[in-house]
Specification:
alpha+beta; Penicillin V Acylase, Chain A; 25% helix; 27% strand; globular
């Protein structure tokens, strides 16, 4: 018998009007998201969530209202879209930026494949073009805007949560309304986020920062060019998929600081162990894709270890679907 290698589908979509394409995605994914939302520690009403967006991210309120309308404007949908006090969710990711011999942000997104949107979405909702991988329909797990600001998140590895937003809606806000790393850092310092995260940013000027966020603690900003799934020597939550966080960080530190790597793209490092991980080795968590953002070129690439590459840019974005065959999913 011939063993078939698992495949995953990824989609590239361009929204010319708010909610035009996402309304279809919403209809297909809402049952799963509704089940996820039911696990929230407390029920947040749409009114409460909207008030929090209005208070902390007022520029985003018209986008939120527009999506609510596009998706039917019922109570549960609007409560979901505010992404305030959502259920906890974790990912085991690695990310790094580079500012010499070109500027880039590269990350591996490690997550169960059935729980990932697998959508690369091009939008221009608020006068700024954004290309980003989505979560919860309009949230951002990694992305870049036309000003050359690129962002990526990694779970912080600590079993702590508090009142606040899902990090993904805050990254959406940043890409919609910030132009520089400095502006993005200020947002992350003032908007409450409900779980620990490490956010790596780089802009067109080559300013790179990693922002360490944990509910109940002061936000930390450092110049480390990489992040994995731990914070300041803290113990890591007992999840197999992030247990090797220190190993991955040490690997990145050594390779990034190696002069022999200076002219190479970080992509090469992320397409090999220990950064690239097979789901069969990590109880269903595998590297779903490697993303490369190039702020100076306005270019986005998604890479897979079998050699497949999806290339998009602000000047040339082609809608369509791609089926990926990868050993990472076995």
């Amino acid at each position: 018998m011939i063993e078939q290698t698992p495949t995953l589908g990824f989609s590239s979509q361009k929204e010319k009007f708010l909610g035009e394409k996402l309304a279809v995605t919403y209809a297909n994914t809402w049952p799963a998201y509704h089940r996820w939302l039911s696990r929230a520690p407390e029920r947040v009403t749409a009114e409460e969530g909207r008030e929090q967006i209005q208070h902390y991210m007022p520029e985003l309120i018209s986008t939120y209202d527009g999506l609510c309308h596009a998706f039917g404007a019922d109570e549960q949908t609007c409560a979901f879209l505010c992404l305030y006090k959502p259920p906890v969710f974790r990912s085991g990711c690695s990310q790094a930026s580079k500012t010499s011999h070109g500027i880039e942000l590269v990350r591996n997104y490690d997550f169960p494949s059935q729980l990932c949107d697998r959508l690369l979405l091009h939008t221009n909702w608020n006068g700024t073009q954004v290309i980003a991988m989505t979560d919860c329909l309009w949230g951002v797990i990694d992305g870049m805007n036309e000003h050359g600001l690129a962002v990526s998140l990694a779970y912080g590895g600590r079993q702590v949560h508090g009142d606040g937003f899902a990090i993904t809606i805050v990254l959406r806000y940043i890409l919609e309304f910030c132009k520089t790393t400095e502006q993005a850092v200020k947002v992350l310092q003032r908007v409450p986020i409900h779980m620990p995260y490490n956010v790596t940013l780089v802009d067109r000027q080559g300013i790179s920062k990693t922002v360490v966020i944990c509910p109940g603690e002061n936000v930390q900003v450092n110049s480390l060019a990489f992040a994995t799934n731990h914070q300041d020597g803290s113990p890591i939550e007992d999840i197999d998929a992030i247990a090797d966080s220190y190993t991955r960080a040490q690997y990145l530190s050594a390779r990034i600081n190696d002069p022999r790597e200076a002219e190479n793209s970080l992509t090469t490092l992320f397409l090999q162990s220990p950064l690239l991980r097979k789901s069969s080795d990590w109880h269903g968590w595998g590297t779903l894709y490697t993303a490369r953002y190039q702020p100076l070129l306005g270019r986005v690439e998604l890479h897979w270890p079998d050699g497949q590459v999806l290339r998009q840019s602000f000047d040339h974005f082609i809608e369509g679907d791609i089926s990926v065959t990868s050993p990472a999913y076995t």
